Amino acid sequence: MKQNKINLVVIAGAFFFLSIACSNADKSVKTNPNSTNTAAETAPRNEATPNAPPVAVKATDLTTAYDENELAADDKYKGKTLQVSGKVSDIAETLGKYTVQLEGHKKNGIGLLNVMCSFKESEKESISKLKKGQAVTLTGVGDGKTLGFYVGLNECKIQ
Fold this sequence. Notes:
Helices cover 30% and strands 35% of the residues. It contains five helices and eight strands, in the order ααβααβββββαββ. A hairpin with a 3-residue loop joins strand 7 and strand 8. Helix 3 packs across helix 4. The radius of gyration is 17 Å and the shape is globular.
C-alpha cells in the first residue's frame, strides 16, 4: 500500500514538471504557404495591445471561464495583460522558475484548476513575502490553459 502511494506521488510530480515544461513550448501560429488569407487573417488573434489597460478578473472567474469553454476564454484572455485577484494557494521555485498559484473555482467543494503565475528571478524578494491564504492581485500576460492543470500567467508582478 505504501509503495502505491509513493508511485502515485512520483507520477503526479512527473506530470507537474511536464506541464511546466510544456507551458514554455513554442506556441506560434503556423500558416499554410498555399493559403490565400491576408496577413491580418493569419496573425495570432490574441496579441497583447501595447499600452492597453490590463483586464481585471478574479482568479475564480478566470478558471471558470476556461473550465466552461477554453476557446472562448483564450479569445478573451490569452496574450492579454491581466490583473488577477485571488487567494494564494502555493508559492514555489521549480526548475529555476518562481511561481505563485491562486485558488481557482471549485466544483463540489474541490478545486480542480488554479491560476499559475510565473515570475522572473528579479521578483524573488517580493514573492518571498507572500503567505498561503493571503489575498493578492497579480499582473501578467495570459498564457491559456495548460494540460487541464492550470491557467497560466507569465511575466507576473505583484500589485
